[in-house]
Amino acid sequence: MVASLRSPRRVLVATILVTSLFLLLTFHQRGTQPFATLLQPENDRAAASAAAAAAAAAAEKPENRELELVVASVKAEDTAWFHTYLPSWHKNIYVADEPAAPLTVPANKGREAMVYLTYMIDRYDTLPETVLFVHASRFAWHNDDPDYDALPTLRNFRLPYLRAAGYVNLRCVWVIGCPREIRPAQDAAQKDSAEKIQAKHIYKEAFEELLPEISEVPEIVAVSCCSQFGVTREVIRSRPKADYIRYREWLLATPLDDALNGRVFEFAWHTTSSPSVIFGKEAVHCPSASACYCNVFGLCDIPCKDDSCDGRYVLPPYSSLPQGWPLVGWAQEPRNFSGPLPAPALDP
User: What InterPro entries does the record tag this protein with (predicted)?
Assistant: First the structure.
């Protein structure tokens, strides 16, 4: 009986010893620090999460953005379409006549020029790679589109070309502005008989005040209207911040009416180095319509002349589009508008 009892006891002890030895060998093969190995995936996830957060924070820095939109608006204008149709674009919507707006200006003067200058001053050190400066209205007579619609103009805009050119006008057609809109010296001499809604007769005097470093006022100044353009960070910074501050101070101080002071900048943005004005192009900057539509918007297979291309832009009979545009025309006739429909106006 004693022998029979000892035998199972020996088997149990042997089993425990073998199992313990097996476990020790297993842990030895997996490494001398098994718990660190088991926790490693958690450490990897934490590191990956931290790296992703750092990358997102870096991408959100304004200077790392590829593009920003600067919109010059007043309270009466509907800017909701920018959010509806360009949701991923970073938008800076200034409200010039609302001092309490998140983005506004020192004074509602100078039309879009005051907004553009304020952005350049405030963001000079944190500019994105490229900036598009535009007006607030989606449909406006000066938009270079068959329907006068700014949306396809923005959607079709080619950033690689802007990067290469430095400055690009959003209007290709020559009518109003090209090929010889202003003759500063000649127009100044006809000041008394000049049409007062244009800036031709005061351009020479304003040019000399704004750009005293340029010894000679250009003989001819020309660029397609109407102060909507793209420009790169490098081109903006080719002038010191102090210049833009001085331009804005001129706008704030000038006794000239808005109909004139803003138009001075309309024909000054494009050029800076002598004999030219702010963004480094020649004083006469009128690329062929064919090259412009192809380079700026990718519209390369349309019949063109130097000043226009078929089916792109026709100067409207009035500066205000008719009620119901783009669905109805000037005689209230139905139009075959194929773009996204604007949202219906809300009842007051």
Answer: DUF3431
